[in-house]
Specification:
alpha+beta; 5-stranded antiparallel β-sheet; 3 helices
Length: about 130
Amino acid sequence: MLTAAIGLFFMVSSLAPAGVGVYLYLRSARLRRDGVQTHGIVVDIRRDGKYSHPVFEFTDRAGKKHQVPSSIGSTGGYVKGDSVRVLYNPENPAEARIDTFVSMWLAVCVCLAAGVGDFVTGLIIILCL
């Protein structure tokens, strides 16, 4: 009985990361579908412990410049002056990302993999009673 409860716990707990993964997927897919692609420049690097987050600047369709810090950090990567592809929401240009796989899809993949992994673990526990 305890084994079944543990398996069920894993299966139910898989909903949290899977739900976050679906939410992040929908956000990225909407930005990919409705967003405007342009070129930007890395104008600053913000350090957060061992991670660095590029701050990029781009000009929207209306000619207004925007500076946006990337929410994705790395231990290396960008330097000031780097040219980057930017994808931004034309209704809210502050909602912008550097157009790379890591920036758009890595968190989606990690969350969905964690959700699927938890679900499969729970299923195996229950089936191997």
